[in-house]
Amino acid sequence: MSETCSKHRQKRSANLLHPKAARIIRDGFFAYFTTGEIGAPPHITTMFYIWDEEPNKFYVITSRSTKKLQNIRQNPNVALTIDERDPISPEGNCGVLIRGTARVIKIEEMGDVLMNQYWQKYLTFLKVGFPMGSRVVIEITPKIIHFWKGIHFHKWTAQ
Fold first, then answer.
1. Is residue 9 part of a domain?
2. pLDDT of 32-90, one tens digit each?
3. Alpha-carbon distances of 137 from 43, 53, 64, 79, 110, rounded to whole Å
4. How far is it, in rounded angstroms, from Cα 49 to Cα 60?
5. Which has more confidence, 98 or 124?
6. What is the pTM of this model?
7. Number of domains composing the chain
8. Cβ contacts of residue 157 below 8 Å, gap of 6+?
9. Is residue 4 part of a domain?
């Protein structure tokens, strides 16, 4: 697939993401995580995240008493947006929108490899002694992944 995106949506397996989409996900520092409560506006928070490329799952860590957890218990459909912004031209903006389902798991279920990746990525901000015992993990399984650059869009559906 060329670097320029076609205006037509393309359906592909999540493991065949556009290389720029995969790079944005790998290199992104934070994501906008959106949950929904029935009859209420979307709840959007900025979150640190980790991507496990195989089996194509995303992980965010949060406190046990957050609004997002309450929403997930009612409605597991979520979205995660990771983007890069061009301060000069909107045509240079690009990003990835992941729509999928969420489930809450214990920190131990995330596994040592992913937990180490999380610490390496965010240690500067979390510092040693961050209270992980009061946290849980939200595991996000993508259903649809959108990638955009400027006004051009791609779409992949999970199989």
1. no
2. 999 998 888 999 999 999 999 989 999 999 999 899 999 999 999 999 999 999 889 88
3. 17, 17, 9, 15, 7
4. 5
5. 98
6. 0.84
7. 1
8. 11, 12, 143, 144
9. no
